[in-house]
Amino acid sequence: MKLAFWKRNKNTEVRKDETTKLNLKPFSYNDLGITFSITQNAQTDADFYWQSLEEEELAYLVDEHYVLPWEELFQILQEEEHKNVINLLNLPKQTSLRPVIKSEGGLSDSNFKIMLDGWLNENNVKTKQIIQRIGAILIIDGVEYLLSEQSFRLVEQLKEFSRLVNKDKELNQKYWAKIRNLSNKANANLDDFLRKTVVLAPEKLQLNLRKNLVSQESIVEIQPTFDEAPSNWLKTFDQYNHVQDQYSISLPDGGIAHVVIPSTVKQVLTEIKKMPSRRVTGERAQAFLHNPFAQLGDDAIDVISLESFETSKQQAEIYTYTLQIKKIYNELKHYISAKLELYENSEREQNPILLELHNLDQTFYFVQAYEKKSPFFMWAGYEIERNSYLDHQIQELKNDLNVIKQYEDELQTKQVLDLSNYSGRVIGIGEAEKLNSEFIKRDSGESEWLPQHLMDLEQQLQDKNLEQNIEQLEKCIRQAEQNNLNEIVVPNTDTKLSLEHAQTLLNQLRISKSKDQDEKLAEKETPQPKKKKDTLLIANNIDEAEFTKQRANLLIFDENNSPTARLPTSFRSNEFSLKQHQAYGVAWLQNLHQYAPEQVSGCLLADDMGLGKTLQLLCFIGEYLENAEAKKPVLVVAPVSLLENWEAEANRFFSNRFPKILSLYGDKLKERKIPKHLISSQLRENHGITNLLQEDWRGDADIVLTTYETMRDLEFSLAREDWSIMICDEAQKIKVPTAMVTKAAKAQKADFKIACTGTPVENSLTDLWCLFDFIQENLLGPLNEFVRTYRKPIENLEGSDETALKQLREMIAPQVLRRMKHDVADLPAKVEVDSCKDIQISLLQRQLYIDVVNRFKKLTAEGNQGAMLSSLHSMRMICAHPLHFYPTASLNDSPKVNWLFETLESIKQKNEKVIIFTEFRDIQVFLKRILMERFGLNITTVNGDSNTSSKKGLTRQNLIDKFQEKSGFNIIILSTTAVGFGVNIQRANHVIHYTRSWNPAKEDQATDRAYRIGQDKEVFVYYPTISATKDFDTFEVKLDRLLESKRELADDMLKPKTDVGKELMQLID
Question: What is the Rg, in whole angstroms, of the alpha carbon atoms belonging to the chain?
């Protein structure tokens, strides 16, 4: 009988007439929000849903009632995870009526009014029905309707305005700006006066940027604007020397827009106004582009979104560049010039910008510019990112210049001593050493080979300030070369010379200067010994490929003959011991560290989750700080929840002899910051730096723990510290090359940098490049070159380039340590229970499933592309929760529930604990209700938005601890999004994935909450799968196959992503 009913009602959505059978309580509400009365021993889905809302601090308890504020209601209405369970609130239908707003008086009047004057229906006709409003509910002729969020916010603002007393023009304008903005969003009908009265009060600013180069100096123009800004807003803004509280701006239609500036926006605009013509140049321009919030005041973070600023930079094509220097040598293997290749730090398809150092003089000035004490390196108007590899290349250039100078000195001596270079009148030369010293003197005859007019100029310039004349002549020659001129005017004279003669004169003046210096040196009683230059020639002849090969051989770590890990004496060895893989990890880190910073500057610790990375790192840094001859501090950067774990593990595994830790976040950070008014005006006004730590802020702490956000905001203080070791935990935070937090991490001065993440590649191989750009700059080259050479060939959908993949593996291998839990022998076994992968489909599920597939094929044939995801979701829910579509059906119609009951009964007999994972809130509520009824447990549900910290109620960890502390059998329901940083549930050894994630890595991450270091039992993992063995492969069967194929590749962090769209389609076919 039921099957016939289902065939007549093939709609797979919950039937409206079924909601009355769900034991839903009558809808109730007041001005604060909607309410729900608590009933003792209540067991309905609605009861459990309200309980979860209260646990997540979305709802609160008052006098045995739950209250969900209207603001929170509208928030969860926007969230996808509440979509399938929101019906439990029993909300009324949303009204299509639009507000009608009228005014009385003018903005200058103290009795100015803005009022609700009724509602317009869909035909734009003002309704005559009797309407009452309570909160977000309209009662129309006794029928309840829900207002849209926009309309609710509008009428609440009108209500607030009506209660004001002592109104004046300023207050009226402020409120009308807010009401006008809400009216536009609610599509309200306004009277003529309100429609023509434009008042804007922007709470957010958009900073448009324009960059120009003037005389090879970067100039950035900042154009602050906002939503609905008049076209002539900037022109009006620039007319005043100071930021006004209000601007009146003429509009093209003859009207006037009044722009009222809130205090927070005014502070930001005031900082911009301080910039001449809204422009910043030189170092300040680069500092502003690097971190605008440091220059625009404390309110900037609330007024300007980081995402919009980054977008503005991209639209203005403002990028930083990575530099590669290609040196050119002559036949003597002496440096003569260099080609500069500037690679844009973006993923755009851009060829490198090619510049050139044409000669030795330009090279000298290039090196000088790089060595200036400035956080930004500008050349030819381009900002070039500093890094240790570029430091090395600059040093090589300096070495090349020194070699050339030495060679030229030797060559000059040879030329002077070679008689064949002279006329026949020269019959001999005296003692070589003495002759060389004397020969460069004027009376030895060298100057006789100069033309007479050059000799006269030489004498004239020597008699004056020789060093100054040389500098001026060098500059003059360099400018002539850059401008392709053939002659110059000699500084401090009226004489014109060809470039060739000018260079000859310059060389002669340099010889004279060198002579003077030699003579002064010779006068000293104890001459300084000449420094050896042997190493310089060796450095010039190293081939890059050979260097990479030698480096790899140097860093190799023999797994069979690896050195023993050295542990700090503070390690509580009488209580704890490292597992084999942990000891290996410490030894591996120590092996690499011995070559830092010259041969290696960091590594990637990519261990699987739950293998004890924190303990390994604490042992590594503890031993270093205990035994280093000249120890330097250690910086650890991590999400705040992990920093608490770092402190907890340090206290647990180490004695009080462990190095002192400073937690640089929260209240302890506030204590160490310099008040803004005490920061020098030069730093504030010339450089825009307003966020600094006090001198000696670190005190006697050896280890500093801080957050990524703190590192970003206090980069000028942290980057001045000379760190020995820097650790970025959960380093996926620095995988975006253009992000400010990534740049701040790369700006830190550390000998050895460690990136820790179990998922080095999440989106694309660009993630890997960015991590290596942090730990070993330039190993993988510039980003766009890396994309061409490795990412595109490896991630090619038509087939990965195995040659490129192999080459990339070999390049990064010495600096990557990755172990998976199945490779580690000292963890208990993880057992996947296969018997649950053939749960036979019920008649209800079969019919619903066939209906969805047929409807999908029909919609697809009609070209309805949106049908795919909708059908996928329906099939997913049919397999997991058929009662979603027919709430009054029997539990026997859900075979997965019956399997769950039997499995939990078996676990109960063993007195063990179980985690049930599902990301769907309606399934969470459903399971909580039926399992509490069956097992009499107070079951906890934890979602991704459960609090990680709270001043009231239970935090996420509190809820988990409560579950673990209960002895014997217990159940907890978790969302896969709730298993982020720091969630450990080792007391449970049964993991049931009631519904599956699309991502096998995410699914394994969920399992790893139980299967990790500290687990002393076998862990059983269940993937209950609905099957229709004889007829067809169900959605869950196909998804299981797909996830298993993906899981086989999951251990390989370099494998390319697959086409998810095609895979999803295959699940339906």
Answer: 37
Structural domain count of the chain: 5
Say yes or no to pLDDT of 539 above 60. Answer: no
Where does residue 276 rank: exposed (0-12), middle (13-18), buried (19+ CB within 10 A)? exposed
Closest-CA residue to 585 (of 552, 608, 569, 551): 608
Nearest CA among 292, 350, 74 for reference residue 740: 292
State pLDDT tens for residues 765-796.
Answer: 889 999 999 999 888 888 888 888 888 888 77
Asked if residue 499 is part of any domain, the answer here is no
- Give the pLDDT score at 529: 47
Q: What is the mean pLDDT of residues 602-616?
A: 91
The verdict on 292 and 326 lying in the same domain is: no
Assess whether 233 and 140 both reside in one domain: no
Domain end call among 353, 388, 403: 403
* 656 within some domain: no
279 in a domain, yes or no?
A: yes
Q: Are residues 963 and 1031 in the same domain?
A: yes
Task: Round the average pLDDT of the chain to a whole number and report it.
Answer: 81
Query: What's the N-to-C CA distance of the chain in angstroms?
Result: 31
Report the share of the chain in percent with pLDDT over 70: 82
pLDDT at 1064 exceeding the cut of 70: no
**Sign (positive or negative) of CA dihedral 543, 545, 546, 551:** positive
419 compared with 639, residue with greater pLDDT:
639
Of 886, 992, 871, nearest to 931 by C-alpha is 992
In a domain, 476, yes or no: no
232 and 194 together in one domain: no
- Of residues 1003, 1011, 1022, 951, the one with CA closest to residue 987: 1011
The sign of the dihedral angle between the CA atoms of 187, 192, 194, 195 is positive
What pLDDT band is residue 518 in, cutting at 50, 70 and 90? low
